[in-house]
Structures are given as C-alpha cells and as structure tokens.
Amino acid sequence: PSYPPVARAAHVSGTVTVQVIIDEQGNVIAARAVDGHPLLQPAAVSAARQSRFSRTLLDGEPVRVTGVIKYNFVAR
Asked: Closest Cα partner for 21 from 47, 48, 41?
C-alpha cells in the first residue's frame, strides 16, 4: 500500500492487520482493520480491498473464506 503522507510526516510505522472476506471467485468483498496504528489503517484497508486471490475449493466447489492480511509500514 502507499504510505499515507500524514503518517510519514509523523514518522509512524508498524504493522496493520486487516481481516478480509473473500468470495467464491477470489475477490475481497469486505475488509476491516483489526489492529495497527490509526494513521496507517485506511491505506491498509484500501490495499486489501484491491487484492485478488485464487479461488478456495472445498470438495471441488468454490467457497467464501475469511482471513487476515498483515501490511508492514516502515518509515524511512
């Protein structure tokens, strides 16, 4: 994800954990930050919503799944 300018100016860094729901086609249909600095959370959630995954199959059928994505922001 792009580093938020306000977070960069404040020298904020760290990991943001985003919980996602992925539909049967591998598209993220819901994302919410569950941990991390508040200045970094919107960028992480936005990046998660743009992610695409391989379909998950259960007994050969595509299924909806949930998981977490962790984004590491390193201030430079």
From this structure: 48
